[in-house]
Amino acid sequence: MTDEQLGLLKQFVQMCKANPGLLHQTQYAFYREYLESLGAKIPPGTDSGSSKTESSKIHTEETFEGNQEEEKEPELPLPELDNSGVIEDKTCGEEYAMGDPGKEVSDEDIEKAQEHRQAAQMAFSEGDYEKSVEEYTKAIEFNPGLAILHAKRASTLLKMAKLSAAIKDCDKAIAINPDSAAAYKFRGRAHRLLGNWVEAHLDLALSCKLDYDDQANEWLKEVEPNASFYSNSEGAKKLHDYQRAKERLADEKETRARQERIRRAQEENKRAAEENKQKYDEEGDDLDGEVPPGLFESFKNNPELAKIMEEIKKDPSKIGQYLNDPNVLNLLGMMGGKGGGGTKPSTFNMPTGDTNDSKPFKQEPPPKAPEPDLD
């Protein structure tokens, strides 16, 4: 490792000390996993203190209307960074051939690759970037082990704003030749256009170290202010506070949504209970206007029992399925005897061995105890 690379590594470690949250970013997962393999404890990405919880409670005590539109999440201003020049990636999922790494390249293949490379350079100078990419791709297929072809195709993809594709090409070039200054240069430029300031600074600085280039140095100076903001302890604190504010807003939004779901569920349960009560009130005629004592309490305490009785009412032949259930038998007794009032009992069809044949099952009122002779 060169002194320059060692210096960049020290700078990165200093940034992680100032803002440990960086380790939870996807691009640094490999470093986080390495630290964890050594037994290091990585601080959590989200601070969940009591003040945060209390703040969430205060903001989630609102009452929602059922048809209320979802509130717009307030936008937080970004920290003081100059994001001018950041553009949208237009890769759109395209995949470009990387060549067969196991291909045995012949002298003829090398000549063909050189022809397509020259055609690609010509198309690039004429502004025909699509054709340039096609020609570089053909050159790569003939000579897949040449890192400069991937770096040059990446420079063309940058012109087309296909930043992710350009980064993939540069990664391939660096895998073939770790000292490819052009690959670091164009990958650094792609990161700059995506707003990845730290990555851009690392790549461009290494490119200038490997092979100084005026354009690479100009791009390096362009990203230095924002990159230093990340490494600066005050800037890192601002970014950390910004991230915490975003997480707090997301937590509050989720809490409000959860509270609304609970409210709607409670309303639905209440409405269902009222409908059940109204239905049984309206069906009082089936019981000759009398409601057996404890009937509503049985349904209220055991909603499953109410479903069973509704099922039996629709299809009396199903009563046989529940004759071993003491709760069902007790309720049938209440409905049949009507509290000992002497009115007509309810009648259900008792299924026999043949499921299509049934006979009446009559629940008689319980016998009265003998009365003493008072004469």
> How many beta-strand elements?
2
* Rg estimate, integer Å: 38 Å
**N-to-C CA distance:** 119 Å
- For the biggest β-sheet, the strand order reads 1-2
Percent in helix: 55-70%
CATH homologous superfamily grouping of one domain:
Tetratricopeptide repeat domain
CATH class of one domain reads Mainly Alpha
Secondary-structure element order, as H and E? Answer: HHHHHHHHHHHHHHEE
Family: Belongs to the FAM10 family.
Protein name: TPR_REGION domain-containing protein
Keywords: Repeat, TPR repeat
GO molecular function, one term: Hsp70 protein binding
Structure commentary:
It is a single chain. The protein is an all-alpha fold and 375 residues long. Among the domains are: 125 residues, Tetratricopeptide repeat domain (Serine Threonine Protein Phosphatase 5, Tetratricopeptide repeat), CATH 1.25.40; 40 residues; 74 residues, no CATH class. Helices cover 59% and strands 3% of the residues. It is built from 14 helices and 2 strands, in the order ααααααααααααααββ. Strands 1-2 form a two-stranded antiparallel sheet. β1 and β2 form a beta hairpin. α8 runs antiparallel to α9. About 16% of the residues have low confidence.
State the gist of this model.
The chain is mainly alpha-helical.
Keyphrases for this structure?
single chain, 375 residues, mainly alpha, Serine Threonine Protein Phosphatase 5, Tetratricopeptide repeat, two-stranded antiparallel sheet, 14 helices, 59% helix
Give the topology, please.
Elements: H1 3-18, H2 29-37, H3 50-59, H4 107-125, H5 129-142, H6 147-159, H7 163-176, H8 181-194, H9 197-210, H10 214-231, H11 233-282, H12 295-301, H13 303-314, H14 326-337, E1 347-351, E2 358-362
Antiparallel strand pairs: 1-2
Helix pairs in contact: 3-11, 4-5, 5-6, 6-7, 6-8, 7-8, 8-9, 8-10, 9-10, 10-11, 12-13
Biased composition (Polar residues): 344-355
Subunit structure: Homotetramer. Interacts with Hsc70 as well as DNAJ homologs and Hsp90.
Domain STI1: 292-332
